[in-house]
Amino acid sequence: xxxxxxxxxxxxxxxxxxxxxxxxxxxxxxxxxxVQSGAGLGSGFPDEEYKKVGARILDTIGQxxxxxxxxxxxxxxxxxxxxxxQKGQVIFxxxxxxxxxxxxxxxxxxxxxxxxxxxxxxEDGSLPLLTPMSEVAGRMAIQQGAKxxxxxxxxxxxxxxxxxxxxxxxxxxxxxxxxxxxxxxxxAGLGAHVTILDVNMxxxxxxxxxxxxxxxxxxxxxxxxxKHVRSHDLIVGGVLLKGxxxxxxxxxxxxKTMRPGTVIVDVAVDQGGCVETTRPTTHENPTYxxxxxxxxxVANMPGAVPYTSTMALTNVTLPYVLSLADKGWExxxxxxxxxxxxxxxxxxEIVYEELLEAFGPLKAATA
Length: 367
Hints:
Blueprint: E1 2-5, H1 20-28, E2 32-36, H2 47-52, E3 56-58, H3 61-67, E4 70-72, H4 79-82, E5 90-93, H5 101-110, E6 113-116, H6 131-148, E7 170-174, H7 178-190, E8 193-198, H8 201-210, E9 215-219, H9 222-229, E10 234-237, E11 263-266, E12 287-290, E13 293-296, H10 306-327, H11 329-335, H12 337-340, E14 343-346, E15 349-350, H13 353-359
Parallel strand pairs: 1-2, 1-4, 2-3, 4-5, 5-6, 7-8, 7-10, 8-9, 10-11, 11-13
Antiparallel strand pairs: 6-14, 12-13, 14-15
Helix pairs in contact: 6-7, 10-11
């Protein structure tokens, strides 16, 4: 198979779809890999490293799309890429379709085969291709939240760990999934007081068992959320509905009850956000203020640490890429129920239930 690795062109996205180590596995199996010149530089992988493992370096993103049967990348195609996607071409990436009807319609119109990393699902309900980026984003949420609590960037001026004689900052984590667990772990490590909310009692029991005593659990309800947003310094939104839009757990009116300089990091922004006032931001302009509440809503948080993120991503995507390349997408999905759940759009038709619930049965434009 001919596989293309284009350079990511989303704002400040420095990750790349595959490391040279991953490319080597493909070329060893007789596949052709096209890598756009400079695609790996942001992650620390120059063209020469790809050449050494048998990749062919192409000058432009258009060449990569036009010469490849399958595109392996990190982020969803953006407007400039829509016209490059070809009929029947396999696009394997993070799509997060539920957050963008425009992207969904564009991929329907392209009649490509869209396999979304974030909906590949194992038998136990885990999301193996989303997990490593959720781990990165959860840890980064505290790193970024701590920075934006500083007064020069409009935060409350709170040091999360406190100092002797001064109590630590308070962190509220919505969701006890991968993002929430990692955020709580990082916040606890800094010495902050952490409250983590979820509706899943099994997850809360797990958190209670593995976290230190200054991480407390509570059942998630509107009443409890309203209570806690008034007293916490940093709020991390880590709620996920597989393939669907995130629920709006923090509403517009709640902001007025928060203290000025409170920071919200909405990691769920890729799925529309779990805060009503969330809108996607970039690493270039990561925050905005509403009612003196700092919103950090960067839609590609792991892109700020591309070396770590690219390595972690290739570790989990490579087995699926090899299967798709060796067998073709139809056989690979037929033989692997986990991969089959990654199918969101196939040749002009939405095939993923949660996406149908989000937008209804959108139709392809007339050819």
